[in-house]
Design brief:
With 203 residues, the chain is an alpha+beta fold. The chain is 20% helix and 13% strand. The C terminus is likely disordered.
Length: 203
């Protein structure tokens, strides 16, 4: 028996034409046209600001959207105390672990308060989860203020006093309490709840 022969299949090959030596195209005119566009934009911006989109920041600031996440602030009650009940929702939800809360007991047995409340603004990623998970509207990010630059990292750790400087009375009202629950048969033993609107709007 003879050795089986291999069948060779020829495939079409595309031939690319090459310029002969000394006949390559010149890029002189292409470069000249590009320089013309550059010079047109240069003189147009120098004398007429025709093509520029540069904003003279910080003298001219852009228009921020109303829901922009900016520096935090802590909201207050009608008596001037902070609304924070130290529920630990914001430090739990924070992906950057920039919020530190230490709770302490109060005279009201139904809720606690924050003995220590700190936010490391340098670690904050401005995600807004702390605002979303807060059940009492104690923290917001609607100040419209950028976090100021600092020389030392410790200066970027804002405490409760610093965060409450821009705090105002919250629109959210607490409804209920154990006395109200006992007097209201329609609640069927529900826990005290918090209601409100405009959580992202400035009061």
């Amino acid at each position: 028996m003879g050795t089986p022969t291999k069948k060779v299949v020829e495939r079409g090959v595309r031939r690319v034409a090459r310029d002969a030596p000394g006949q390559r195209p010149s890029f002189f005119w292409t470069t000249l046209r590009g320089m013309g566009v550059t010079l047109r934009h240069f003189f147009g911006n120098v004398f007429g600001r025709r093509y520029t989109v540069t904003r003279e920041y910080p003298e001219v600031k852009p228009d921020y959207p109303p829901r922009m996440r900016a520096q935090h602030r802590l909201m207050k009650r009608t008596d001037g105390t902070l609304r924070c009940v130290a529920c630990m929702m914001c430090p739990t939800a924070c992906p950057a672990h920039c919020i530190t809360v230490v709770a302490e007991e109060t005279t009201d047995r139904d809720e606690k308060r924050a003995q220590l409340f700190e936010i490391d603004e340098l670690r904050c990623v401005m995600c807004g989860l702390c605002v979303e998970v807060c059940p009492v509207d104690a923290i917001r990010m609607d100040t419209g203020i950028h976090v100021a630059p600092v020389r030392q990292r410790a200066e970027a750790v804002y405490g409760a006093a610093k965060l409450a400087e821009h705090g105002t009375q919250s629109k959210v009202l607490r409804v209920g309490g154990r006395a109200a629950l006992a007097a209201d048969p329609d609640r069927n033993g529900e826990e005290p709840r918090y209601i409100g609107e405009g959580l992202h709007e400035r009061p």
